[in-house]
Amino acid sequence: MKLMSLRGPFLSSLLNRRMVTILAILALYFTGMGMVVGSDGSTGHTQVRKFINNYCSDCHGVDAQEGERDFAAFKLPLTTIDQLISADEIIDQLTLNLMPPSDATQPAKRERLDALKHLRSGIVDARQRFDSTGGRTVMRRLSNREYENTLAVLFNRRVDTLGLTS
């Protein structure tokens, strides 16, 4: 007990630092997952799905595929390049207010902006996943200059490589 009282301030500051660190890690984890929760408690993925079902699927669903667009299977997170292209096209049409057409039911401005925000977030996440090497080293061929410099560093002298690569 005496030992605990001597280290009380140290332990409490250490626990406070740990607690702050844990809370910061949790906050970063949940914001990084793209799971933004809407005012109705739904995530961004379900908000986009509802938006497409409400405003797009009448013309671009299973039954009708106007403009050769079928968004029936579209969902977040984006897993293919085709879905990424579709998401880009959806964003373009929504941003320009070209879709839904003027004779169809129009979404509220907030609803349109939320869908755009979640789609953009989905595109950023997908591009990061697609561009990632998964922590692996990507092998490539050295240019002639890189090859000569590597040999010069290894053997401590310049090597003429013109005759080596015939």
Query: How many domains?
Result: 2
> What's the total count of β strands?
0
Broad shape: flat
Distance between the termini: 80 Å
Order of helices and strands: HHHHHHH
Work out the helix count.
7
What does this entry look like structurally?
The chain is mostly helical. The chain folds into 2 domains: 30 residues; 116 residues, no CATH class. 58% of the residues lie in helices and 0% in strands. It contains 7 helices and no strands. Helix 3 packs across helix 6 and helix 5 packs antiparallel against helix 6. The longest helix is centred in the N-terminal third of the chain and has 25 residues. It is flat and about 75 Å long. About 5% of the residues have low confidence.
What topology emerges from the helices and strands here?
Layout: H1 2-6, H2 8-32, H3 44-55, H4 57-60, H5 81-95, H6 109-131, H7 144-155
Helix pairs in contact: 3-6, 5-6
Give a concise summary.
By secondary structure, this protein is an all-alpha fold. It is built from 7 helices and no strands. The termini are far apart.
What descriptive keywords fit this protein?
166 residues; mainly alpha; 0% strand; flat
